[in-house]
Amino acid sequence: MDGFVDLVDDLLRVSDDKKEVDDADFAVNARDPKTGRALLHEACARGDMGIVKLLLMKTEADLMLRTMLGRCTPLHLAVSNNHRPIVFLLLSHGADALSRDRFGCSPLHYVKSPSVAKLLVQYGGKALDYNTVRSLKFRVP
């Protein structure tokens, strides 16, 4: 992970106390100047469940942070690399299954397996239901 080796080492050495991670001397959502990706993007693309869990549980890693070039979310990268357990973890932490990249593609456009497609449809359906209810609730008569 170009540019993030020291950050990963620091994160892995931090204790279970969330406050210590929050106070640590690093910006978890900082992007690598060469790739335009943050640490969560790299961990999702590479399938590193340990780092993804650590970032989601103990830091303020932004699930909706987009890469600079393709405007991909961490979910887009996990799906396109067929990392089903990471896809599930991201979705269960609130990643948007309906988010679009700069080409107008949702993560579903990058699916490589039926099980990942099913997860996205399940979570995307929940988002659609929520948005429908929300729009009806706040609809101006």
Quick summary of this structure?
This protein has 141 residues and is mainly α. It is 52% helix and 0% strand.
Tell me the β content. Answer: under 5%
Radius of gyration: 16 Å
* Euclidean distance between termini CA atoms: 52 Å
Portion in helices: 40-55%
Number of domains: 1
Could you list the spans in which at least 5 consecutive residues all have pLDDT below 50? 130-141
Q: Under the CATH scheme, which class?
A: Mainly Alpha
Number of strands: 0
Judged by helices, strands and strand pairing, the structural class is: mainly alpha
CATH topology: Serine Threonine Protein Phosphatase 5, Tetratricopeptide repeat
The string of secondary-structure elements, in order, is HHHHHHH
| SS element count, helices | 7
Query: Which second-level CATH architecture applies?
Result: Alpha Horseshoe
Described by its quaternary structure, the protein is single chain
Average pLDDT, all residues: 79
* CATH homologous superfamily placement: Ankyrin repeat-containing domain
**Largest β sheet strand count, sense and barrel closure:** none
Keywords: ANK repeat, Repeat
GO molecular function: ubiquitin-protein transferase activity
Pfam family, one: Ank_2
GO biological process, one term: protein K6-linked ubiquitination
Which keywords apply here?
mainly alpha; Serine Threonine Protein Phosphatase 5, Tetratricopeptide repeat; 7 helices; 0% strand; disordered C terminus
